[in-house]
Write a structure and sequence with these properties.
The chain is built from twelve helices and 13 strands. It has about 350 residues and is an alpha+beta fold. The radius of gyration is 27 Å and the shape is globular.
Amino acid sequence: MGPIIALLVFVVLVAAAALVFWPERGGLARVMRGHRSTDRVLLEDALKHLYTCQAVGRPCVAGTVAEHLGVSDGRAEALLQRLQASDLVRVGAEGARLTAVGRESALHLVRAHRLWERYLADRTGVPAGEWHEEAERMEHALTPDETDALASRLGHPRWDPHGDPIPTSGGDLPDTRGVALTEIAPGRTVEVVHLEDEPREIYEALLTDGIELGARLDVVGRDADTVRVHVRDHEWSIERDVACNITVRRLPPGSSADRPVETLLDLAPGEVGRVVGISPACQGAQRRRLLDLGVVKGTEIEAELRSAAGDPIAYRIRGALIALRRQQAEWIRIDRVASLEAVPESGPRARAAAGADV
């Protein structure tokens, strides 16, 4: 039995060695790939952090990188040295700054992240509080070609669901817009154009309070610690640190948060509205259906007729007659335009007829 046992032991040892050292698929290879992947992710996260610091004019050194990534100062210093050796970063007395090549690489990560958040918001039912973390993972997985394909599928959006600008494939960014809520004097009405999504707890609390992109707020008071706002029948104070996470644009004098934004539901038969956006409250399959129907910014929609019960309502969208429920119509924000009878050459029905002649 001795030789048989020895042979079995030898076979087991060879099998174990194969499992550990087999090229590409062995345990060691997997560990090394995981290590390289983690290392690459850290380098890319450091690169994106540098971009963020430069964008807001904040100096970036090894200590700030270490704090952001949750690594030691020594590890952060090593990451910056590697980025500098790859000509992605220049490190000087004032800290680290991106080179032109480094900025291009960072913008790819930012573009992938924000497009994926846009995808999650428009095409899935993932809760808003989870968009950022999901996009943090996907930004490292998407290649430039895959990112371009995603942008094309989404219709090349300019803004992510938090209001951040999405870089184009060439690295261009839409102009930043708005000011912090803390800068608004009492007596003005504003519209929310950006919500910072970190920390997640604050972001979710703002959504719970009804503060979302497109929401209108009346600023009724302000002091060193809080900003007091009024929305419809609700009035409350927002701590200054939280209010800094809310970016707004001033609405013309005379505007009011009590005057709701017009929606498709406000149109009478024969009236036309131009889409300015879809409410963030519309998510997942519902939002996906509206987008697939062509309900995107700039589309003109005519109210055709209401059912006897008032629900659903028929609308002409890009030449097709579509029935929408009242709730769906209320999600679609519009600006009124002249009636189709007044400007037949510019209405959706006229364009549909022109298309039929081609």
